[in-house]
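Hey, resending since the last one bounced:
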Amino acid sequence: MDEYSRHLLQEHLDADTVHLEAHLPGTVDVERLRAAFTQTLAAHPTLQVRQADSHWWHRRYRWEPAPIGPTAVAATADLGLTRHRALTEPPPLADGPPLRLETAPAPGGGTALLLTAAHTLADAGTCLRLLCDVADHYSGAPAGQRSGGRAGQRSGGRARQRSGSATDVPATVAARGGRPARIAPAASPTPGTGVHLSVLPLARSAAKPPQPTVNDLLLAAVQLTLAEWNQRHGHPTGPIHLSMPIDDRPHGPLAPGAPMGNHNHLATIHADAPAPDAGAGTLVGRISAQTRAAKAAPVTGGGPVAGLVSTPWLPVGAKAPLTRALRRIAAPWTSTALVSNLGRVTHPLDFGPAGPADALWFSAPVRMPRGLSVSALTLGGRLYLAVRHCHQLLAEPAAAELAGRCAEILDALVKDGGRR
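The structure tokens again:
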């Protein structure tokens, strides 16, 4: 996945970043935070690297140990501008570890911490583990207690073979006999991406078990939201296909010894909305069946692009343009949206004098033609939802409307256990 992501990346065009944002009730000392960040990276040498000088004839991109730059940890004055930078300005791969940790005043007081990582280096699980370790070092937690919590996995529950998975999508869709619907555009001429954050309570209903998982309800809510959005805008309402990352770590990103980097593969969920009189419960049931099957399915190679990336005799000067060309060819079969759920975070994320995190979001990167990612995690009995979008697809007002509707539908599904 690291190599695949790097071949796709065009740094002058792409902001392929993972954005993680925690809000703390107190004030963070930046020098103490920088020391904690330095200690954390020293314990994870696979993250303290930069891209070395590479030439077109090299068989793979080359990486080397790198010092932490003076601006890797910084205090900023405006949360909106800092968040915008996290979405649109990836840390350069060649200047030092492509990670950035910034603080900004949080709404209503306290501190917002924003961790930005180049997706070539790290996935959301790795970013979460990194921030938890920074919190432990900042608070002075004893070494044996660090990362003692866990994060619920995105879907998987056992070790899997690594996959260059983004190429699984076209084959899966072809087997279903149709191209995925695109989201009805309401575009802006402004380049870049935006994100809309919301919080939902997770008080579950008294419905008889087995209840659908939060992940199943999230997938159903996105499915219903996009079908409704497209119908309102005179756009095809289906088939809607959702890409779902499945974590390949056997016990989640916070397990002792869990690998850092990119460790997931994509499954495609294609349970189209049922007839209006069938109710959402039918959709949730279909999605539950598909997610269970995706968790149990063996993970194979990753398709032709993964094979191309791993070819030992082809230099990067040829792999990169060929990978991007194959992705453009496969664009009509790209899923409608990406839905990523980190699950339940039980690590306290306690920053000592600054207090434990009382809010936490992450957002996955987006590219066209998909143009939309919906990311979620659960902390302290609340679900934190981030809807990230390309401005080429949705202007800010349209994205805010779609994100708000998704939160409304998800809240309704959670309250009645997916029976609506």
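The domain at 2-415 is CATH 3.30.559.30 (Chloramphenicol Acetyltransferase).

Sorry for the duplicate.
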